[in-house]
Design goal:
This protein has about 325 residues and is mainly beta. It is built from 3 helices and 18 strands. The strands form 2 sheets. The protein has a 10-stranded antiparallel β-sheet, with no helix packed on it. Strands 1, 5, 6, 8, 13, 14, 15 and 18 form an 8-stranded antiparallel β-sheet that branches.
Length: about 325
């Protein structure tokens, strides 16, 4: 395990060095760029939606060290919109439900999927902790109408934001996810994490009404952290921690045995953004929203760096 972590650290350091000499895309930033320097060694995947893959505008370049490019599913290049979330940002990603009254595969979402795992996401293989963060803006009614049922007024019980899939995922199950989901009959903003593939997940839910946390037409910076060694999870809004509670009693991550504890030793099967099934085989939990500067880190970073990253681009 130690050799794998050392290899990751060496690769991250090399790519960070390349970024600062101009070999990496501009979105990776230098000392004056949008990414806090102390986050770069952990920044496995980063999408600012201003770097289409050359020759394929329906794909987005990864500015993190894993180089995991993603697909813009459903709308392709049309999903990039001229609405930057923060100073220095010009465009963001629009995701949305397209045909709410019919079952199909036309929702706008993004991500990548590999049925045997995505090798470039090895940083999340047996990882000790994770962070998912970025900017989000609600642009329409959420949750969306459930296109998988016949009832005309049935709505999904969740709104997908962004997360990393588990190593055995069908495109829905995750290792770490930011989401709005029903908790005890009420929708809440949550961090949802799963340490062991195929085992139970734990959810940390924000106490405050999700509609107050994510008002329509307002950009908000969200972060979720997952410490697989201790079981600690946290949520942040605009750099500040949110009060919340764990929803699953007991020990769903199976931390009672001797440690150290890590996530399953499997490569994640991908990343999902704005809904489930990035391989576009089904629809579930769409989000009518925009997203910008999405970061997926191979460490459960602390409050100080989350606050500093927010202030770096928000200017306060």
């Amino acid at each position: 395990m130690r050799s794998r972590r050392n290899t990751r650290a060496a690769v991250a350091a090399l790519l960070t060095a390349l970024a600062t000499t101009g070999a990496a895309p501009s979105g990776a930033g230098t000392g004056a760029g949008p990414v806090l320097p102390s986050l770069r060694p952990h920044l496995a995947a980063y999408y600012d939606f201003e770097h289409p893959v050359p020759g394929n505008p329906a794909r987005e370049r990864d500015l993190g060290f894993s180089r995991t490019d993603i697909d813009l599913v459903g709308g392709g290049a049309r999903m990039r919109t001229n609405d930057g979330a923060h100073r220095g940002s010009r465009t963001s990603l629009q995701v949305r439900q397209v045909t709410p009254d019919a079952k199909g595969n036309d929702d706008w979402k993004a991500g990548v999927y590999g049925p045997s795992g995505v090798p470039t996401l090895q940083a999340f293989n047996a990882v000790e902790g994770m962070t998912v963060m970025g900017w989000f803006k609600m642009t329409g009614p959420n949750p969306g109408l459930n296109s998988n049922t016949a009832a005309p007024d049935d709505r999904y019980g969740a709104v997908g934001l962004a997360g990393v899939l588990s190593g055995d995922s069908d495109g829905h199950a995750v290792r770490g996810l930011l989401e709005i989901i029903e908790v005890n009959g009420e929708l809440r903003l949550v961090a949802l994490g799963r340490r062991v593939d195929g085992a139970s997940s734990q959810t940390f839910a924000a106490s405050q009404d999700w509609r107050a946390l994510l008002p329509v037409d307002e950009w908000v910076f969200l972060a979720a952290t997952f410490d697989f060694g201790t079981g600690a999870m946290a949520l942040y809004r605009n750099g500040q921690p949110l009060d919340g509670f764990y929803t699953v009693p007991g020990d769903p991550w199976d931390l009672s045995g001797p440690g150290p504890h890590h996530a399953s030793p499997t490569d994640p099967r991908g990343i999902k953004i704005g809904g489930s099934f990035p391989q576009n085989t089904a629809e579930r939990n769409p989000c009518d929203c925009r997203m910008d500067s999405l970061m997926f880190l191979d460490s459960a970073v602390g409050h100080d760096r989350i606050r500093a990253q927010y202030r770096r681009v928000a200017g306060h």
